[in-house]
Amino acid sequence: MAGLSTRPAAPSTPLRPARRGPGVLGWVLRILAIPLVAGNFFLVGAGAGVIWKRLIPEPPEIVARLADEPGKGVRIVEDNGVLKADVSTRKVRIDLARGWTVEQLAFQDTNALLYFTGPFFEEEGGTDYDAKVIGDLYFYGELIPASKESRGFANRRYFMAQTKRGNIRFGFGGWQEGDEDNYRVFIGGLGYLYNSYGPRPEYSDPYSGLKQRLHDAIPRERLIVGRAANDHLIVMKTPPRTREEAVRIAQNEGLEEAYYVDQGNKARFIVPSQINDRPRFNLPYMLRIAEKDHVWVASQSVSPGAAAGVAKERPRRKKRKRPRPADQVPPPPPPLDADGAGPVAPAGD
């Protein structure tokens, strides 16, 4: 299938299981969902405003008319609360924006076309937070391996990559030796929604059993990436929806394959000067898309103490034509006669 990496080789027959009913456990979960949500709303009414914010996030604020600028490589569309970016990856540069203040400043970065969260998370460690990378990351010669805690998990997830020619590719597994010959960008740690083969047998969701079923059944904001029929990258953020509803949204938008990058209240979709996805947490990493000519300059540190923030832009310099040596400069054309019919005859002829 175009766009899906052959790593390891794809199975010869589809693995998509036959559609079945919810079963006993499914019906129990559906029944439990009502008192579960109602109980949270009751706590909110009792004054637990934090729970309300965690359950019902504020929608992103569209503060300006969405500019249709396909020439720059990104087209933004909003439809019934679903935010979608159609990205021509041959025309853009995908970067890793690092630093604990990056999401505070992303909306002001007018040189960027789009910011969105990646497969990263933060973990409380004592009185501070540590940045954790779920999957392997590679950007223009720099490899950031998955964190020690996520190493095994990273090898059982999907990835998104931008090839040397700028095309988008999706595949399965972690970074492998030799990938630098094929990719300029590699983003591992993606979760499965659907593709033409079904999930790989070794694929792993974050949780298992009842806990994972609950995470799928509870409406949450879903940040989705996928490939369109024209091989464009599609980045979407849904309003709070179940996993099954998110799959239907992606299919209705025409995605050939779809994966989730992030979900819940920390999912971000920011279009500078246009869509302000209000911060609720400080995030250590975001993915940034800009025009090709805007080179990203950022700190090499991934330490929370060395916040890179939104670094300055450095436009690529245009090559200046060097003047040719005097002996290579062609002589001026001979002057024309008064009628402009031809060169003036030399004196004395």
What's this entry about, in short?
With 349 residues, this protein is an alpha+beta fold. The protein is 16% helix and 31% strand.
List the helices and strands and how they pair.
Layout: H1 23-45, H2 49-55, E1 61-62, E2 68-69, E3 74-79, E4 82-87, E5 92-98, H3 102-105, E6 112-116, E7 120-125, E8 128-133, E9 137-139, E10 142-144, H4 151-154, E11 158-163, E12 168-172, E13 183-194, H5 209-217, E14 222-228, E15 233-237, H6 243-252, E16 255-263, E17 269-270, E18 275-276, E19 285-291, E20 294-296, E21 313-315
Antiparallel strand pairs: 1-18, 2-3, 3-4, 4-15, 5-19, 6-17, 6-19, 7-8, 9-10, 9-13, 11-12, 11-13, 13-16, 14-15, 14-16, 20-21
Structural summary, described in words:
With 349 residues, the protein is of the alpha+beta class. The protein has one domain (60-315). The protein is 16% helix and 31% strand. The chain is built from six helices and 21 strands. The strands form five sheets. Strands 2, 3, 4, 9, 10, 11, 12, 13, 14, 15 and 16 form an eleven-stranded antiparallel β-sheet that branches. A four-stranded antiparallel β-sheet has the order 5-19-6-17, with no helix packed on it. A two-stranded antiparallel sheet has the order 1-18. Strand 11 and strand 12 form a beta hairpin. Helix 1 (23-45) packs across helix 2. It is globular and about 45 Å long. It starts with 22 loop residues before the first helix and ends in a 34-residue tail after the last strand. Mean pLDDT is 74; it is low at 1-53 and 298-317.
